[in-house]
Predict the structure.
Amino acid sequence: MIPKVFREVIDLGDGRTISLETGKLAKQAHGSVVVQMGKAMLLCTVVSNYKQSPVDFLPLTVDYREKFAAAGRYPGGFFKREARPSDGEVLTMRLVDRVLRPLFPKDYHSEVQVMIQLMSHDEDVMPDALAGLAASAAIQLSDFPFECPISEARVARVNGEFVINPSRAQLADADIDMMIGASADSVMMVEGEMDECSEEEMADAIKFAHESIKIQIEAQVRLAEAFGKKEVREYETAEENEELEKRIHDLAYDKCYAIAKQGTSKAERSAAFAEVKEEVKASFTEEENEEFGHLVGGYYRKAEKEAVRELTLAEGIRLDGRKTDEIRPIWSEVDYLPSVHGSSIFTRGETQALATVTLGTSRDSNKIDMPSYEGEEKFYLHYNFPPFCTGEARPLRGTSRREVGHGNLAQRGLKGMIPDDCPYTVRVVSEVLESNGSSSMATVCAGTMALMDAGVKLTRPVSGIAMGLISDGDRYAVLSDILGDEDHLGDMDFKVTGTSEGITACQMDIKIKGLPYEILVNALKQARDGRLHILDKITETIASANEEVKAHAPKMINRRIPNELIGAFIGPGGKHIQELQKETETTIVITEDAVTEEGIIEILGTNPEGIEAVIARIESMMFKPEKGSVYEVKVIKMLDFGAVVEYTEAPGNEVLLHVSELAWERTDNVSDVVKMGDILDVKYFGLDPRTKKEKVSRKAILPKPEGFVERPPRESSGRDNRNGGRDNRGSRDNRGRDNRRDDRRDDRKPREEKKED
């Protein structure tokens, strides 16, 4: 059966287009769409069970995979097939999940799977920018209960101009790189990095992307209408009891309000709220608990949330007693761990991060191997969030998606401040030891101090802050340095990192519709005040980067050599470089400059003498004597036909002093003139035209003996005199070859005649 295909095209306005197609592939899925831009093609399928899961949350799984076959490549590894997702794929999954999840009904608990895969890759298209569009388009073709279509787009500023969904080459020249997720009327998600841009510039980028997203949403609607919009499926909605809700609200609201106003610690506050909840439960009879006890918990949480939000909106007081723009107490310390290359502790309220820095060579860089991108990172950050940091015990299942996402945000916040001339590969590891909100921003602050403690000369120190927003439509309150509880009950959670000059990275999740840009800009400006306050606390602990790396940390020296010397430096089978590393106790890495094709030698070691020895070896190889100049040399090897000498100012740079150049007199034995270890002067003559090797002479700088007569030059044996010079050799006829051929022929048997068939 020939499939009926439906297609819509989105014009980006610069000659590029994005197409949405359905009806050809994966028709058993509840919704499927192929998104194409250039030669890049993504297939997205969505499926949701018709039976509700026995959980009180939405079991949504977003999976994004880039197939190696899409780029005409083989997967690495022994099994030659795709395994667990890469960090890049996980980050794309999070971008899509954060926009989709809030748009499902709160009482929809059926398992949902959104699977997006890159089937064809285009070097000029970054596929992660199309994943959100693909997911939403597929959902629009399904019968899922979903509030409204959304889309995502990447916006970059290149040479002062905003570009939608730029290529990777364009992105390399951009000073703003942001991913925006939005519906037609509301921005829902923002994530990106900037080169110290202002709050207004960031808002302009969001507005620009939102206009493009609206066009993408219109195309989704047209496609769904052409395909045939399905009726929304029926599902078991949550049970409601307005009378019970009011009863619980009356019992709990005032008590929760009073507890929230006390400004207690997280543990005390949690215990007090739990006590109120138990009192509410105890107010019901056994019969009532059996009938609707399962609703009590949800209605209580709702009353508690309303009380806390009203306290903040009405009185400007927060759970821990702070004002809306107040930052929790901060203390910090550097050089805490004695054996690492750099370390720091940053504590803000009940959130604490311990950061370490490790310095290495280019060999230690983070290799990225994805179908859409191959490269390496010379600066990377790993974020760990163990269960004990929140006072919990839960299974350890490897690095979570959350840890990957938070680590990436902190990395993006810091990496722009690592100078281009930093010779090291730098790894930062953040261990979150306590958490009550904003652990990723604590990681940025701890990372900044650890880097400066390690001697990494940051362009400017970076601080980070997590902000919140509570709004009821008429009133709003922007919260600086939010708690974990404020994250859950607020209407916006946004994290901002930056320097004294501007924003370096951000991550926003906006939960309310139609947030005015004025409120967004005000929130960003309040965040700036908070960032600068935290920055002052950081610089009180460590004002600037240490001038030198620690004594036990490796020192890195870079040198360049001509391409033709790389092989000689390495030696056959790596012999020379291996011996040099062993002798000097250093690590030597050689790479090639892609532009100049020069060899870049990285020397890493803790022993200054060893590093100097390697540098001396390189300089000796680079030593180029001038023709006609006199140099001091040392005899290092005796041969029958001369002595091998090395320049004293360039040890290891050797040249042959031929026996004929030792003295004016005839020399039968080299040892008659020089001995091993002798220091003498020689004159450099450049390349010998006959031997094509470097020529040096000792006799050239010695006075000519009195009465010395040079041997007359040998007569040239030209082609004309070739026969005359061979008279004594006899003619070819006298070489005993006269009858050789005839003798051989006499011994042969007669050839037999060929028989006829």
About this structure: Confidence is low (pLDDT under 50) at residues 716-747, 753-757. The chain has five domains: 6-227, 242-315, 331-391+400-469+516-541, 555-622, 630-701. The longest strand covers residues 187-197.
